[in-house]
């Protein structure tokens, strides 16, 4: 977790997108503060959170943007995407529809963001395996076809959240270096 006194070598803006209630804010809370809340209203209105980590001996400040409840189709403005070098495209593994909306989010992302943006597809809520509605294989296949990284996470259990962010940030780091 970040040390305020350290020198920052890079600042990378990463945006979270995906349908409402898939767990974007809790994924961010887990990554930025190692917190989780069952009350989804807790973080409404927060524009972004930061966490500084070390990648290949350089300090990288990740500035992670969260949609403040603007997940309706086309409600996310282009300002949100401006300057973003990474994107996390999140669906809920227990809600098939949130996965079916992913192509729409991807289209919006590609229309507004830089063409070299690093994108990871995230299937969240793996702790609810008994309610799974999206097979891992379906998402993996889609990600491969679209050239996205892919990971399944649980913000609740803190599974793969760190790995997902580190995957995106390391890839961005490698592109700029
Ligand atoms: P957002 O609208 O995409 O930002 O979703 P939130 O982060 O607000 O989460 C919506 C609801 O799902 C909240 O009740 C969270 O507590 C819950 N939630 C988020 N992540 C997980 C998870 O990994 N597992 C479970 N079981 N619930 C989660
Ligand atoms: Mg939210």
Automatic annotation (TrEMBL):
For this UniProt entry, the molecular function terms from Gene Ontology, in alphabetical order, are: GTP binding; GTPase activity
Q: What is its main location?
A: membrane
Q: Which UniProt keywords apply?
A: GTP-binding, Lipoprotein, Membrane, Nucleotide-binding, Prenylation
- Per the record's keyword annotation, is GTP-binding included, yes or no? yes
Membrane topology type, per the record?
A: Lipid-anchor
Q: Name one GO cellular component term.
A: endomembrane system
- Compartments where found: Endomembrane system
Q: Which family does it belong to?
A: Belongs to the small GTPase superfamily. Rab family.
Listed name of the protein = Uncharacterized protein
At the highest ranks, the source species' classification is:
Eukaryota, Viridiplantae, Streptophyta, Embryophyta, Tracheophyta
């Amino acid at each position: 977790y970040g040390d305020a006194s350290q020198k920052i070598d890079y600042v990378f803006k990463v945006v979270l997108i995906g349908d409402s209630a898939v767990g974007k804010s809790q994924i961010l809370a887990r990554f930025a503060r190692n917190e989780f809340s069952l009350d989804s209203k807790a973080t409404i209105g927060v524009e972004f959170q930061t966490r500084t980590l070390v990648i290949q001996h350089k300090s990288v400040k990740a500035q992670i943007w969260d949609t403040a409840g603007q997940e309706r189709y086309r409600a996310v403005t282009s300002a949100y995407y401006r300057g973003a070098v990474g994107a996390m495209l999140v669906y809920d593994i227990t809600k098939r529809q949130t996965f079916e909306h992913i192509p729409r989010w991807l289209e919006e992302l590609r229309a507004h963001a830089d063409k070299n943006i690093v994108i990871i597809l995230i299937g969240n809520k793996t702790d609810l395996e008994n309610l799974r509605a999206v097979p891992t294989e379906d998402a993996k296949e889609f990600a491969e076809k679209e050239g996205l990284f892919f990971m399944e996470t649980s913000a609740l259990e803190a599974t793969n959240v760190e790995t997902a962010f580190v995957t995106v940030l390391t890839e961005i780091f490698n592109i700029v270096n």
